[in-house]
User: Fold this.
Amino acid sequence: MLALTVVTAAIGISGCTVIVPTGEHYGSEGITISRGEHGREGGQGNGERKEGAGASEGEESGTTLTLTEEYDTVRKGARLILVYDAESNAFTGTVENTTSSTLQQVRVEVHLSNGVELGPTTPVDLAPGQTVDVSLPATDQAFDGWTPHAEVGPGSGGEAGEHGPGGEEGGEGGGEHSSGG
Assistant:
């Protein structure tokens, strides 16, 4: 873990971070999170892309994206590709099963920089190779960053359930993590 931290810090200085996942089925290629030159210089911030396998075993990736970045990550066999569409004020994309087994109860959430949680989407079972569309309408409250993640299986990774009893029916506008302010 110390070596990973040192590599991340050294590469992070140059504007690029490489995360080398351990454990489950992440594939053999390296996973990269790319930030570009601070995201907005020279007007070339559009279309930036974030890739990663999630920096922790928890459900959230911990990576906050700008509104122009694309999220493309495989976690627990689910590949989530998501972008923010300002015109429709929604997060749209796909989630795909990259494994040879059915992934059960796959759902997607987005946490906004203003504290609002969008989702989760309705849980679906994904057959091997199956891809489904994802759309989460955003809030009318201003935000400038977002943290997406896909969840697989019942509950939240064996933890004490991020949503608690009935919490997954919280709707799209505000989750239990928001302070209501």
